[in-house]
Amino acid sequence: FTPPNLTRFKMAKQMPTLDQISFHVQLAHGSPTREIPGFRSVKELYLSISKAFQVPIDRIMYCTLNTHKIMMENLLGGQIGLDDFIFAHIMGNQKTVKVNKSQPAIGLTVSDNGGGLSFIKKIREGTLAATVPNIKVGDAILSINGVGATNKRHVEIARMLKEIPLGAEFTLVLVEPNTFFDQSMGPRTAKSGSGNVGAGGGKKTLRMKKDGSAEVVDTNSISEEQVKIGKIDDLLDAHIGIKDDDLARSIYEAAKKTVDGGKDEEAFSAILDEDFPDFEFTDDFIIDAFEIVNP
Length: 295
Description:
Blueprint: H1 4-9, E1 22-27, E2 34-37, H2 42-53, E3 60-65, E4 79-81, E5 86-100, E6 108-112, E7 118-123, E8 140-144, E9 147-148, H3 154-162, E10 169-177, E11 204-208, E12 214-218, H4 223-240, H5 245-260, H6 265-275, H7 283-293
Helix pairs in contact: 4-5, 4-7, 5-6
């Protein structure tokens, strides 16, 4: 099995354009393989998947790369290698979970799919959420105490959970990914796509930008930048309980702009206050994020 992009471009000296690339996709619970064109955003990707598989777009939860399993470390973010294989996770069974908030921190890290759906990206060990069997990594959050949780930013979902009073019982309506494998589809083979497809053979990456555009770049040229963005994303998780590659990238770019302009943490703090007033970043977060970019 050779991804279509490598066949066409592994010997190319110049970067392919967006209309020259395509990706192989399967539904994570089992399907034939489809080929979809290059895309500029996650929403555009979901639209292509919806058309290719005749699946309602609002049933698409998120995508993983090179594995059909619910592995958050393989979650599709703001960039994808041209040799990556995409697996789309579709909504399965809905469930209602009642929890007594016996600890101040519930222990959930919330992310979103870029299309208005927030889901559980991590459950911290030793926390309240880790003791509730029906709350699982990969579950999407549909409502909290009867209040709809769709079409909200994941920071709003994190705030809703945080504001539940200590000692109160609350109700979560969740939906888990469909993990049923349709036997009529046949086994996962190399020809039709496999559960785990090796990545990293190529040197080019499709990078989606915040302004809605996308570009193909050399993987090696963004590795150091991506490491720093990943560290800022980890800070977001530690400080406010969310994972957001786009937000982490925006914070990185704000810090880099501050550093390149010869300014200090106070100028960086002013940019964050102006651009992201809803987050109310603490001084510790601002200092740590600035030091990642300007060690």
